[in-house]
Amino acid sequence: NRETSSAPVSQETSYTTLRQTQSDSVMFNSFCAYRFPDENKIQLFKGNLTEGICEGFVIAPFDLSEHNPVSIVSLQECDWSELSGIIQFCDDSASLFEFPHESTTRKQHKKEVESIIEELDGNPEKKTIAAKVILRNQSIDLPKTFVRLCKEFPSSFIFAFHTPVTGGWIGASPELLLDCDQGILHTYALAGTRPADSEGDWDKKNINEQRIVERYISRCFEKWGLKPECSPTATCKAGKVEHLLTRICADTSERITDLLLFLKDLSPTPALCGLPKEESKERINRLENFNRGYYGGFCGPFKSPSRFSFYVNLRSVRFDKTRWCMFAGGGITPASDPDAEWIETERKAAGIIKNLQFVSQL
Question: How confident is the model over 112-133, as pLDDT tens digits?
Protein backbone atom coordinates (compact mmCIF):
# COMPACT_ATOMS: atom_id res chain seq x y z
CA ASN A 1 0.00 0.00 0.00
CA ARG A 2 3.06 2.26 -0.30
CA GLU A 3 3.08 2.41 -4.12
CA THR A 4 3.76 5.58 -5.93
CA SER A 5 -1.78 6.47 -13.25
CA SER A 6 -1.12 9.99 -13.71
CA ALA A 7 -3.53 11.95 -11.51
CA PRO A 8 -2.81 15.66 -11.69
CA VAL A 9 -4.41 17.88 -9.07
CA SER A 10 -5.49 21.47 -9.72
CA GLN A 11 -2.72 24.05 -10.10
CA GLU A 12 -2.41 27.74 -10.94
CA THR A 13 1.15 29.01 -10.87
CA SER A 14 3.58 28.97 -13.80
CA TYR A 15 7.25 28.26 -13.04
CA THR A 16 9.59 29.78 -15.62
CA THR A 17 12.54 27.84 -14.21
CA LEU A 18 10.65 24.57 -14.53
CA ARG A 19 9.79 25.28 -18.17
CA GLN A 20 13.44 25.92 -18.97
CA THR A 21 14.70 22.73 -17.35
CA GLN A 22 12.47 20.47 -19.43
CA SER A 23 14.73 20.93 -22.47
CA ASP A 24 17.95 20.08 -20.63
CA SER A 25 19.79 17.30 -22.46
CA VAL A 26 20.75 15.37 -19.33
CA MET A 27 20.10 11.81 -18.23
CA PHE A 28 17.65 13.11 -15.61
CA ASN A 29 17.11 16.45 -13.92
CA SER A 30 15.77 15.35 -10.53
CA PHE A 31 16.10 12.59 -7.97
CA CYS A 32 14.45 11.50 -4.74
CA ALA A 33 15.15 8.92 -2.06
CA TYR A 34 13.04 7.97 0.92
CA ARG A 35 12.53 5.39 3.63
CA PHE A 36 9.26 5.05 5.52
CA PRO A 37 9.24 5.02 9.34
CA ASP A 38 10.02 1.65 10.93
CA GLU A 39 10.86 0.09 7.56
CA ASN A 40 14.20 -1.05 6.14
CA LYS A 41 13.74 -0.51 2.40
CA ILE A 42 15.35 2.59 0.88
CA GLN A 43 13.66 3.69 -2.35
CA LEU A 44 15.71 5.75 -4.79
CA PHE A 45 14.52 7.21 -8.09
CA LYS A 46 15.53 9.57 -10.87
CA GLY A 47 12.99 11.34 -13.04
CA ASN A 48 11.77 14.53 -14.63
CA LEU A 49 10.06 17.46 -12.95
CA THR A 50 6.54 18.70 -13.57
CA GLU A 51 4.24 21.19 -11.87
CA GLY A 52 1.37 20.12 -9.64
CA ILE A 53 0.55 16.96 -7.70
CA CYS A 54 1.09 14.01 -10.04
CA GLU A 55 2.01 10.36 -9.75
CA GLY A 56 5.57 10.25 -8.48
CA PHE A 57 7.28 12.13 -5.63
CA VAL A 58 5.58 15.39 -4.58
CA ILE A 59 7.43 18.38 -3.07
CA ALA A 60 5.49 21.34 -1.66
CA PRO A 61 6.73 24.66 -0.22
CA PHE A 62 5.95 26.20 3.15
CA ASP A 63 3.51 28.70 1.62
CA LEU A 64 1.08 26.97 -0.75
CA SER A 65 -0.86 30.20 -1.22
CA GLU A 66 2.11 31.61 -3.16
CA HIS A 67 3.62 28.58 -4.95
CA ASN A 68 2.26 25.22 -6.07
CA PRO A 69 3.83 21.83 -5.43
CA VAL A 70 6.04 20.14 -8.02
CA SER A 71 6.38 16.41 -8.71
CA ILE A 72 9.23 14.19 -9.84
CA VAL A 73 7.52 11.94 -12.41
CA SER A 74 8.37 9.09 -14.80
CA LEU A 75 10.33 7.58 -11.94
CA GLN A 76 13.12 5.15 -12.74
CA GLU A 77 14.68 3.08 -9.97
CA CYS A 78 18.40 3.54 -9.48
CA ASP A 79 21.02 2.91 -6.82
CA TRP A 80 23.55 4.93 -4.89
CA SER A 81 26.43 3.90 -7.13
CA GLU A 82 24.63 5.59 -10.01
CA LEU A 83 24.13 8.74 -7.98
CA SER A 84 27.26 8.78 -5.83
CA GLY A 85 28.49 11.90 -7.61
CA ILE A 86 25.13 13.70 -7.73
CA ILE A 87 26.29 16.36 -5.26
CA GLN A 88 28.73 17.68 -7.90
CA PHE A 89 25.81 18.52 -10.20
CA CYS A 90 23.53 20.13 -7.62
CA ASP A 91 23.51 23.69 -8.96
CA ASP A 92 21.25 25.83 -6.77
CA SER A 93 21.39 28.96 -8.93
CA ALA A 94 18.08 28.35 -10.72
CA SER A 95 16.02 27.28 -7.69
CA LEU A 96 12.78 29.05 -6.83
CA PHE A 97 13.90 30.20 -3.38
CA GLU A 98 17.22 31.86 -2.65
CA PHE A 99 19.74 30.01 -0.48
CA PRO A 100 20.09 31.73 2.94
CA HIS A 101 23.03 34.13 3.12
CA GLU A 102 23.96 33.77 6.79
CA SER A 103 23.19 31.94 10.00
CA THR A 104 20.63 33.33 12.42
CA THR A 105 22.41 34.72 15.48
CA ARG A 106 21.20 34.21 19.02
CA LYS A 107 20.55 37.95 19.26
CA GLN A 108 18.42 37.91 16.10
CA HIS A 109 16.46 34.89 17.30
CA LYS A 110 15.84 36.43 20.73
CA LYS A 111 14.61 39.66 19.15
CA GLU A 112 12.22 37.70 16.93
CA VAL A 113 10.85 35.65 19.84
CA GLU A 114 10.36 38.76 21.97
CA SER A 115 8.54 40.49 19.09
CA ILE A 116 6.24 37.50 18.63
CA ILE A 117 5.43 37.32 22.35
CA GLU A 118 4.58 41.03 22.37
CA GLU A 119 2.35 40.72 19.29
CA LEU A 120 0.51 37.69 20.72
CA ASP A 121 -0.66 40.07 23.46
CA GLY A 122 -1.18 37.37 26.08
CA ASN A 123 -3.68 35.32 24.04
CA PRO A 124 -3.09 31.63 24.93
CA GLU A 125 -4.95 30.50 21.79
CA LYS A 126 -2.37 32.13 19.51
CA LYS A 127 1.12 30.91 18.59
CA THR A 128 3.75 31.54 15.94
CA ILE A 129 6.67 29.33 14.97
CA ALA A 130 10.06 31.07 15.17
CA ALA A 131 12.72 29.34 13.06
CA LYS A 132 16.42 29.85 12.59
CA VAL A 133 19.00 28.72 10.04
CA ILE A 134 22.55 27.42 10.53
CA LEU A 135 24.78 27.88 7.46
CA ARG A 136 28.08 26.07 6.80
CA ASN A 137 30.49 25.78 3.85
CA GLN A 138 30.87 22.00 3.51
CA SER A 139 29.96 19.44 0.86
CA ILE A 140 27.54 16.77 2.10
CA ASP A 141 28.11 13.12 1.25
CA LEU A 142 24.52 12.21 0.40
CA PRO A 143 24.69 8.38 0.44
CA LYS A 144 26.54 8.23 3.74
CA THR A 145 24.34 10.88 5.36
CA PHE A 146 21.14 9.20 4.20
CA VAL A 147 22.18 5.81 5.57
CA ARG A 148 23.30 7.39 8.84
CA LEU A 149 19.93 9.13 9.27
CA CYS A 150 18.14 5.83 8.60
CA LYS A 151 20.10 4.19 11.42
CA GLU A 152 19.78 7.04 13.90
CA PHE A 153 16.11 7.86 13.28
CA PRO A 154 14.35 4.50 12.71
CA SER A 155 10.87 5.92 13.38
CA SER A 156 11.23 9.00 11.13
CA PHE A 157 10.56 9.48 7.42
CA ILE A 158 14.03 9.83 5.88
CA PHE A 159 14.07 11.79 2.64
CA ALA A 160 16.43 13.40 0.16
CA PHE A 161 15.70 15.10 -3.14
CA HIS A 162 17.13 17.54 -5.63
CA THR A 163 15.36 19.34 -8.49
CA PRO A 164 16.20 22.49 -10.47
CA VAL A 165 13.25 24.27 -8.82
CA THR A 166 13.60 23.15 -5.20
CA GLY A 167 17.35 22.72 -4.86
CA GLY A 168 18.63 19.89 -2.67
CA TRP A 169 17.19 18.76 0.66
CA ILE A 170 17.78 15.91 3.09
CA GLY A 171 16.10 15.26 6.42
CA ALA A 172 14.55 12.97 9.02
CA SER A 173 10.96 14.03 9.58
CA PRO A 174 9.10 12.83 12.68
CA GLU A 175 5.83 14.31 11.42
CA LEU A 176 3.27 12.85 9.06
CA LEU A 177 1.23 15.55 7.34
CA LEU A 178 -1.30 13.31 5.60
CA ASP A 179 -1.47 9.67 4.52
CA CYS A 180 -4.31 8.15 2.53
CA ASP A 181 -4.76 4.43 2.01
CA GLN A 182 -7.88 3.39 0.08
CA GLY A 183 -9.83 6.42 1.22
CA ILE A 184 -8.84 6.43 4.90
CA LEU A 185 -6.92 9.54 5.94
CA HIS A 186 -4.31 9.48 8.69
CA THR A 187 -2.38 12.36 10.23
CA TYR A 188 -0.67 13.45 13.46
CA ALA A 189 -1.08 16.40 15.74
CA LEU A 190 2.56 16.75 16.81
CA ALA A 191 3.72 19.62 19.01
CA GLY A 192 5.39 20.44 22.29
CA THR A 193 9.09 19.74 22.78
CA ARG A 194 11.34 18.73 25.66
CA PRO A 195 14.60 16.74 26.00
CA ALA A 196 14.26 13.06 25.17
CA ASP A 197 13.54 10.70 28.08
CA SER A 198 12.43 13.51 30.39
CA GLU A 199 10.68 12.42 33.57
CA GLY A 200 7.43 13.73 34.97
CA ASP A 201 4.38 15.33 33.39
CA TRP A 202 4.44 17.77 30.50
CA ASP A 203 4.11 21.46 31.40
CA LYS A 204 1.06 23.54 30.56
CA LYS A 205 2.85 25.51 27.81
CA ASN A 206 3.64 22.37 25.80
CA ILE A 207 0.25 20.76 26.43
CA ASN A 208 -1.47 23.90 25.16
CA GLU A 209 0.76 23.96 22.04
CA GLN A 210 -0.23 20.40 21.19
CA ARG A 211 -3.95 21.01 21.78
CA ILE A 212 -3.88 24.01 19.44
CA VAL A 213 -2.54 21.79 16.64
CA GLU A 214 -5.01 18.98 17.38
CA ARG A 215 -8.00 21.34 17.33
CA TYR A 216 -6.82 23.00 14.11
CA ILE A 217 -6.44 19.71 12.22
CA SER A 218 -9.79 18.42 13.50
CA ARG A 219 -11.52 21.61 12.34
CA CYS A 220 -9.89 21.31 8.89
CA PHE A 221 -11.31 17.81 8.59
CA GLU A 222 -14.74 18.93 9.76
CA LYS A 223 -14.74 21.81 7.26
CA TRP A 224 -14.59 19.18 4.49
CA GLY A 225 -17.37 17.09 5.99
CA LEU A 226 -15.02 14.54 7.58
CA LYS A 227 -15.42 13.08 11.05
CA PRO A 228 -12.00 12.98 12.73
CA GLU A 229 -11.24 10.27 15.27
CA CYS A 230 -8.47 11.16 17.73
CA SER A 231 -6.33 8.74 19.70
CA PRO A 232 -5.16 9.42 23.26
CA THR A 233 -2.17 11.78 23.29
CA ALA A 234 1.19 10.06 23.83
CA THR A 235 4.87 11.00 23.98
CA CYS A 236 6.88 10.46 20.79
CA LYS A 237 10.69 10.42 20.76
CA ALA A 238 12.59 12.02 17.85
CA GLY A 239 16.35 11.95 18.36
CA LYS A 240 17.45 14.27 21.18
CA VAL A 241 13.91 15.54 21.81
CA GLU A 242 10.42 14.21 22.34
CA HIS A 243 6.99 15.58 21.44
CA LEU A 244 3.32 15.14 22.26
CA LEU A 245 1.49 13.22 19.54
CA THR A 246 -2.17 12.54 18.80
CA ARG A 247 -3.11 10.30 15.87
CA ILE A 248 -6.10 11.48 13.83
CA CYS A 249 -7.94 9.51 11.14
CA ALA A 250 -11.11 9.87 9.03
CA ASP A 251 -12.96 8.12 6.24
CA THR A 252 -12.92 10.50 3.26
CA SER A 253 -16.03 8.97 1.62
CA GLU A 254 -14.99 10.94 -1.50
CA ARG A 255 -15.73 14.26 0.24
CA ILE A 256 -12.37 15.75 -0.73
CA THR A 257 -13.04 16.91 -4.28
CA ASP A 258 -9.87 19.01 -4.61
CA LEU A 259 -6.84 17.56 -2.84
CA LEU A 260 -4.64 20.61 -3.39
CA LEU A 261 -7.26 22.91 -1.88
CA PHE A 262 -7.58 20.58 1.11
CA LEU A 263 -3.79 20.59 1.55
CA LYS A 264 -3.77 24.39 1.40
CA ASP A 265 -6.22 24.39 4.33
CA LEU A 266 -4.15 21.87 6.28
CA SER A 267 -0.56 22.95 5.53
CA PRO A 268 1.30 24.50 7.16
CA THR A 269 -0.28 23.37 10.41
CA PRO A 270 0.08 25.44 13.60
CA ALA A 271 3.06 23.19 14.48
CA LEU A 272 5.02 24.69 11.54
CA CYS A 273 3.41 28.11 11.14
CA GLY A 274 1.14 29.15 13.97
CA LEU A 275 -2.41 30.27 14.59
CA PRO A 276 -4.15 32.21 13.17
CA LYS A 277 -2.37 30.93 10.07
CA GLU A 278 -2.34 34.05 7.86
CA GLU A 279 -1.39 36.30 10.77
CA SER A 280 1.47 33.94 11.65
CA LYS A 281 2.72 33.70 8.05
CA GLU A 282 2.82 37.48 7.78
CA ARG A 283 4.75 37.68 11.04
CA ILE A 284 7.22 34.98 9.93
CA ASN A 285 7.90 36.69 6.60
CA ARG A 286 8.42 40.01 8.35
CA LEU A 287 10.66 38.86 11.19
CA GLU A 288 12.85 36.01 9.88
CA ASN A 289 16.14 36.78 8.14
CA PHE A 290 15.65 34.08 5.46
CA ASN A 291 12.97 32.57 3.22
CA ARG A 292 11.84 29.15 4.43
CA GLY A 293 11.27 27.89 0.89
CA TYR A 294 10.46 24.19 1.27
CA TYR A 295 11.20 23.98 5.00
CA GLY A 296 7.85 23.46 6.72
CA GLY A 297 6.26 22.27 3.48
CA PHE A 298 5.84 18.57 2.74
CA CYS A 299 7.06 15.79 0.48
CA GLY A 300 6.38 12.15 -0.28
CA PRO A 301 5.15 9.57 -2.81
CA PHE A 302 1.80 10.00 -4.57
CA LYS A 303 -0.02 7.33 -6.57
CA SER A 304 -3.58 8.69 -6.67
CA PRO A 305 -5.93 10.89 -4.60
CA SER A 306 -6.77 7.77 -2.57
CA ARG A 307 -3.19 6.54 -2.07
CA PHE A 308 -0.35 8.81 -0.98
CA SER A 309 1.96 9.57 1.97
CA PHE A 310 3.06 13.16 2.65
CA TYR A 311 5.46 14.06 5.46
CA VAL A 312 6.39 17.52 6.74
CA ASN A 313 9.76 18.83 5.54
CA LEU A 314 11.14 19.06 9.05
CA ARG A 315 14.52 18.42 10.77
CA SER A 316 15.92 19.10 7.33
CA VAL A 317 19.03 20.43 5.62
CA ARG A 318 19.17 22.29 2.33
CA PHE A 319 22.35 21.75 0.32
CA ASP A 320 24.20 22.50 -2.89
CA LYS A 321 27.61 21.20 -3.95
CA THR A 322 29.65 23.43 -1.61
CA ARG A 323 27.44 24.32 1.38
CA TRP A 324 24.46 23.37 3.53
CA CYS A 325 22.03 25.02 5.92
CA MET A 326 19.99 23.47 8.71
CA PHE A 327 16.55 24.77 9.69
CA ALA A 328 15.09 24.47 13.20
CA GLY A 329 12.12 26.12 14.86
CA GLY A 330 9.87 26.16 17.90
CA GLY A 331 6.38 27.24 18.84
CA ILE A 332 6.16 30.64 20.52
CA THR A 333 3.24 31.36 22.83
CA PRO A 334 2.75 34.10 25.45
CA ALA A 335 4.34 31.68 27.98
CA SER A 336 7.56 31.22 25.98
CA ASP A 337 11.02 32.12 27.30
CA PRO A 338 13.42 33.39 24.57
CA ASP A 339 16.50 31.70 26.04
CA ALA A 340 14.69 28.39 26.44
CA GLU A 341 13.45 28.61 22.85
CA TRP A 342 17.02 29.06 21.57
CA ILE A 343 18.17 26.02 23.53
CA GLU A 344 15.27 24.01 22.07
CA THR A 345 16.26 24.85 18.49
CA GLU A 346 19.89 23.99 19.27
CA ARG A 347 18.82 20.60 20.58
CA LYS A 348 16.64 19.90 17.54
CA ALA A 349 19.38 20.90 15.11
CA ALA A 350 22.10 18.95 16.92
CA GLY A 351 20.33 15.65 16.38
CA ILE A 352 20.60 16.05 12.60
CA ILE A 353 23.90 17.94 12.34
CA LYS A 354 25.89 15.34 14.29
CA ASN A 355 24.83 12.74 11.70
CA LEU A 356 25.79 14.72 8.59
CA GLN A 357 28.65 13.13 6.63
CA PHE A 358 30.89 15.23 4.42
CA VAL A 359 32.95 14.74 1.27
CA SER A 360 36.66 14.67 2.11
CA GLN A 361 38.58 17.65 0.78
CA LEU A 362 41.88 16.37 -0.68
Answer: 999 999 999 999 889 999 999 9
pTM (predicted TM-score):
0.90
CB-CB contact of 60 with 294 (8 Å): yes
pLDDT by residue (tens digit) across 141-162?
Answer: 999 999 999 999 999 999 999 9
Whole-number mean pLDDT of the chain?
88
Higher pLDDT residue, 1 or 68?
68
Cα distance between residue 326 and residue 96, in whole Å:
18
- The CA distance from 97 to 199, in Å, is 41
